Amino acid sequence: xxxxxxTLAAMALAVGLASGAQAQDRLSFKAIGxxxxxxxxxxxxxxPFFEQFAAKTGLPIDVDYKPxxxxxxxxxxxLRVMKAGLFDFVSLRxxxxxxxxxMLLGLDLVGxxxxxxxxxxxSKAWFDTxxxxxxxxxxxxxxxVWPFGPQILFCKKPISKxxxxxxxxxxxxxxxxxxxxxxxxxxxVPVAFADTHQSLSLGVVDCxxxxxxxxxxxxxxxVTTHQLPLGFQMALxxxxxxxxxxxxxxxxxxAKMSAAFDTLSKDIWAYSEELFQDALNCNAGKDPCTTxxxxxxxxxxxxxxxxxxxxxxxxxxxxxxxxxxxxxxNPGCSQKWTAAVGPVLGLK
Length: 348
Known about the structure:
The chain is an alpha/beta fold. It folds into 2 domains: 166 residues, D-Maltodextrin-Binding Protein, domain 2 (3-Layer(aba) Sandwich); 126 residues, Bacterial extracellular solute-binding protein, family 7 (D-Maltodextrin-Binding Protein, domain 2), CATH 3.40.190. It has a 6-stranded mixed β-sheet with strand order 7-6-8-5-9-11, sandwiched between helices. Helix 5 runs antiparallel to helix 13 and helix 6 packs antiparallel against helix 12. The protein starts with a helix and ends with a helix. About 5% of the residues have low confidence. InterPro entries: DctP_fam, TRAP_DctP_sf. This is TRAP transporter substrate-binding protein.
């Protein structure tokens, strides 16, 4: 073999070995996403982030991302699926998984986050406690928390105030909200988001609670007539990773990943707030409407009395109800919440 040929062969071998080493260093993770049916945050923020994960994070990681409603997995089973090691990342639906871990719901008690600014403070105050609990119980690390936005009321019967739901069946998604609806005089009915449109259409429920953008994406205004833009909860969700996957990363890689999820969550907080007002306009057939389809819902004015009713729910209903459940599975849970979150809300 001539010297030049030997040099080329050596270079080719070196490149091949280097490529092999790079391939070995590259990681492949699987992710559970939000349901497709939830709309624009999933479509425009979450899915692109995971599908471009290496570019977004600067990490040699490829992610196989699947929305949960394409997997045949219930959104109430996310923590169990993660603990079993079937996925590495999860876009965690907080309320839906609070039966398996009640501490989660401390992020989003009814009345605790009537607006985005308060919601951000509450989630920051409770974040570390939830993270520690998830690591301990499910071997899952919390990376970020973000909101769909204020969850409001949609009805297929005329309403002019919150008290008008008395005697009506209302779709809810967690026990905290269910207790509040009972307090107001409604009958709470647990219905999965994907089934709510049909439930409204068939009269299984008279009203339902979700964010205005998600309602628009799912076509709820086709089967309702009124929207009351009074925020019960912020519909907080989280991003989490199994400790097994997390521990495969070097410390500098962990720092990069944390920073990337922090950036993503801040982006979603801002985007969610933009969507909220625009979707209210779209649902009511008003301009500007740039993110959804125009409908003709009657927008009910929020009265000071209704606003006070929701804000007062924390001390009167949502905290006592949740505390009983959380303290039963984790003694001292509500005391920790009061110490951490109470000062944010002015509670003693």
